[in-house]
Amino acid sequence: MKVVVQIPCLNEEATLPLVLASIPKKIPNVDEIVVVIIDDGSTDKTVEVAKKHGVRHFVRHARTQYLARSFHDGVNYALEIGADIVVNTDGDNQYPQEKIAELVQPIISGQADIVIADRQTQKIAHFSATKKFLQRFGSAVVNKAAGTDLPDAVSGFRAYSRESLLRINTVTRFSYTTETIIQAGQKHLSIASIPITTNAKTRESRLFKSVRQMVTKQGVTIIRAFIMYRPHIVFGTLGYTLLVLGLVPFVRYLYFTITDHTGRGHLQSLVLGSVLLTAAFMCLVLNIIADLIRINRILIEDNLEHTKRIRFDK
Ligand SMILES: Nc1nc2c(ncn2[C@@H]2O[C@H](COP(=O)(O)OP(=O)(O)O)[C@@H](O)[C@H]2O)c(=O)[nH]1
Ligand SMILES: [Mg+2]
Q: N or C: where does the chain have the smaller number of CB atoms within 10 Å of the terminal CB?
């Protein structure tokens, strides 16, 4: 059993030694632990520091390609060197790497395909009330899309089985955390969660400059995921709501046209009803198109999985 611990890093020379020092050297039922640094175009001494602390495996980007791409490239590298389990942790020492042994156990024992560390955000002192609310709300929406029940959907501290990585395909450039959960949920993989306590904050988040930016970016990712995986929830709900709203003025127009003999036209109702009904019709057509694309994607993903198996399973 080989565990690859991958750490995406963008200028993490200050905190990386702490992260590396806390990665366990031995884990029960694991023969080999390999650390891979994904250097996403760091301009500081991240790579030198990692080498000095004994890291032998690197994936390097000459220019920053952002976190989702880094995750993707790290996973491919890990699969290439024969990882049975890939653990992802951050370079800012936010997560307790000592817990890696616990994180991988559900996968080793065959109970889970993916294990997500729950940061228990409701208890984190330096998280504002807004951030806590958003975390809970965001996780609820992701769970709805994925059909799961996970307390912390955006935690970056996770373990993935080789099998789950062969089946999941991330496409968004920005956030792979929510996307992997939604895909895994849709594909009926088993996702477990273990509680952890995060380390003291070392610095501000680099992924999000502000709460507003976080909401916008995660919001877009989640809406896109819904459109991709459960289009009927978006277009169906919207379409049928507009249909009902449009029928009201439309029926009113018909009723008065038939019963009212004073010669008044009720054109406003007709215009409003027609606009709403046209919008409803468009939503329902979009629903059909999105569903056809979804079916197509299932075929493409099947193919991709097959290609990955040929590429990585030697
Ligand atoms: N590859 C890559 N990693 C990044 C980028 N920005 C942040 N990171 C890494 O992603 C992890 C999480 O970043 P962090 O700033 O702690 O965001 P947080 O998750 O909101 O705390 C750390 O390991 C960072 O080094 C980026 O643009 N590219
Ligand atoms: Mg962090």
A: C
